[in-house]
Each structure stands twice: as structure tokens, then as C-alpha cells.
Amino acid sequence: MPRILIINPGSTSTKLGIYENDEIIWKENFEHSAHTEDLLTPEERVKIRAKEIEGLLSKEGFKIEEFDAIACRGGILPPLESGTYEVDEEMVDYLLHKTGVDHPSNLAAPIGRLLSRGNIPVYITDPVSVDEFWDEARLSGIPQIERRSLFHALNMKAVARKVAEEMGKPLEEMNFVIAHLGGGISVGLQVKGKMVDVNNANDEGPFSPNRTGELPVGDVVELAFSGKYTEKELLKRYTKQGGLLAYLGTDDLRKAMKLAANDPKAELVIEGMAYQIAKEIGGMCAVAGGNIDAIILTGSMAYNSDFVEKIKSYVARFALVVVEPGENELLALAEGAKRVLTGKENPKRFKVGETI
Ligand SMILES: Nc1ncnc2c1ncn2[C@@H]1O[C@H](COP(=O)(O)OP(=O)(O)O)[C@@H](O)[C@H]1O
Ligand SMILES: CCCC(=O)OP(=O)(O)O
């Protein structure tokens, strides 16, 4: 039975797990100082996090050489097919130096590769840049900019498989609208197992706990040329300090809901986030011609039943709403690596320039 170390870095913490005998036997979420990380190069961030992980594992009595594989969250690679990929130097180089989008998931494979010291296979499964768009979804409105498929592919695909199984039909016969409600929000249309359209969770779609989502383009251009901000500052403002954080000073939905109990402004902001999510869901239902088997709400914000009810009040008339709170990313990563270790699936190789 393979023993697999799982690494899933977020912006302020790294989620770790150990998988054995078909279950997660140990997990930990440990915090980093995101503020300090801003000043470091990607290599420095990788080294620091890898050292912290190794220290923690050794404190718990685990040795890296005792693992059969390391399973890491896939980062922002070029557009790729869904599946499990072997991590190699070319992928690490891309994630550290060429990706173009600053996101903590980019650190996972480099951390795994460093920890493995070349002795243990390292895999990623369903990276953020899985691309199954149909052609219409690629158009942005200007030929120079193509819309990008960047979303919570790992959790959304795992959840879709689970719901299809529970509904007793093959995934390839089901149409779902899936909303991942986390620090970032992805709302996607999955038709017969393929995510044919989804908002780019980094800079499109609804505003989220810490991102602005889509913004009016004229105002963005005006701010960009105001001379008040560098490119890096503005990107940070939109993709790390927007949404609930910008309006209410917290990106924690639980705190925001508490504020809303006595503060009409906070109440309006939360209603606004639910409204934007519902609009995105409704749009996906429309382009599927209303032919939807279920609307699935997932991610950590789906734990909050009051927030879920707000979204349901807009969209429940379109289809059955299934709530799958949280994200089973650790398990989904372990299972992706296991499918390869047990020979059920061949690992894919990433090659720059050979993407779909
Ligand atoms: N149990 C919970 N109930 C309601 N909201 C939660 C819960 N746990 C986390 N959240 C909220 O979900 C959002 C994102 O959490 P998380 O899933 O950890 O983010 P990420 O997508 O970055 O991994 C935050 O606003 C957080 O406050
Ligand atoms: C960029 C798409 C994936 C994403 O938003 O992940 P997080 O919510 O973990 O930041």
C-alpha cells in the first residue's frame, strides 16, 4: 500500500497530509508569514517552506525516504489536459521562472522536487491550468487577449466524480454547474466530464474573500495610469487584497458574517458576493441551455449554511443544488498519485510548447 506525502501550499499556510491504506492518516495546516514571503524570491520561498515541512515531519517521526511518492498541488502551468503529471526539472523551472501568474500553488511541485532529492517520484494532479474550454469560451472581446482556464480544477473535478457516483450515473452523461467558494471563487460548467467554461478564479468572475474578480475595464486602466501604484502593487490589490478584505478588513467569511449581524454595510457586501456568485451560476446554466443535472456548491465557504441559503435563494429554481462543503484536495492529490503508482494510469509528461 503506497505511503504518499501530500503538499498543498496556500497564500498564508501549507496543508500537508500523509496517505496510507486508502486514507489520510495524518494532516497538518501550518501558517507562514505571507507578508515576509512577499520580499523573497520564489527559490527562497521554496527552500524555507521545504525546510519547515521537513522539520515538522521529522518532529512527527516521518522520514522523507520512507514515502513512495510525493503528491503536490499543480500550479499555473500552460493549458494542460486533466490528469496526473510527473514533476521534472522543466516543470519546476516553468513554475519558478516562467509562469507569469504569482500564486502559491506554483510552489508545490518545486518544494516536492527539492524534498525528494531525486529519489522519490513527485506528481501533480489536475493543476490549476487544466483547460477543456469549448471554442466560444476562449473569446475575450479582443483578439490580443484570450480567456484562460485557471480554476480549482482538483477539487471541482473530484467533487463532480463524487456527486455523479452518488446520483448513480456516469460522469460522462452528466452536466454540472460547480461553484468552488474558497479564498478565490471558480464557477464552471462541466459538460459530460469536461469543464467547458469557467471564470478565471484569479481575475474574473465574482468578487471573493480576497479578490476583486471582474472589474470595469475603464476604471482599471485609469488607476493603472494614475501613477499611484506600481504594476505589482495593483495586481496585489486586485488578486490578494480585494473582495471582502477590501470592503470589511477581513477575508474570513465567518468574521464577516458576524459583522453583518449588526452592520448593514457588511450585510450588503455579503449579499453582493452571493449575488455575483448567483449571476455567474445563472450564466453557466444559460449557456448549457438549462440542461443541468445539479448545481454543486463546494469549497470552505459552503460550510456556512446562511451564506449557502443566500445563493440558493437565487439559483435553486434552475436545478437541484448539492452542497459539498470544504475541499478534498489532499485526498484528490493522493488518489491521483496512487492511480499512477498502482499502474491504473500512466503519468503524463509536461513539455513546454507541447500543451493543448
Ligand atoms: N468552517 C467554515 N465556515 C465558513 N467559512 C469558512 C469555514 N472555513 C473557512 N471558511 C472561509 O472560506 C474562505 C476560504 O477558505 P479556504 O478554503 O481555506 O481558502 P483557499 O481557497 O484559499 O484554500 C475564507 O473566507 C474562510 O473564512
Ligand atoms: C488561480 C485559481 C486557483 C485558486 O484561486 O486557488 P486558491 O483559492 O487556493 O488561491
TrEMBL record:
What keywords does the record list, in alphabetical order? ATP-binding, Cytoplasm, Kinase, Nucleotide-binding, Transferase
Named from the GO MF annotations, one term is: acetate kinase activity
Q: Per the UniProt entry, what is one GO biological process?
A: acetate metabolic process
Q: What is its EC number?
A: 2.7.2.7
Q: Could you tell me the gene encoding this protein?
A: buk
SUPFAM superfamilies linked to this entry = Actin-like ATPase domain (SSF53067)
Q: Which domain of life is it from?
A: Bacteria
Give a GO cellular-component term: cytoplasm
InterPro entries given in the database record? Aliphatic_acid_kin_short-chain, Aliphatic_acid_kinase_CS, ATPase_NBD, Butyrate_kin
Q: What class of enzyme is it?
A: transferase
Q: Where in the cell is it found?
A: Cytoplasm
Q: What's the protein name? A: Probable butyrate kinase
Q: Which reaction does it catalyse?
A: butanoate + ATP = butanoyl phosphate + ADP
Q: What does the sequence similarity comment in the record state about its family?
A: Belongs to the acetokinase family.
Gene3D superfamilies associated with the record: 3.30.420.40
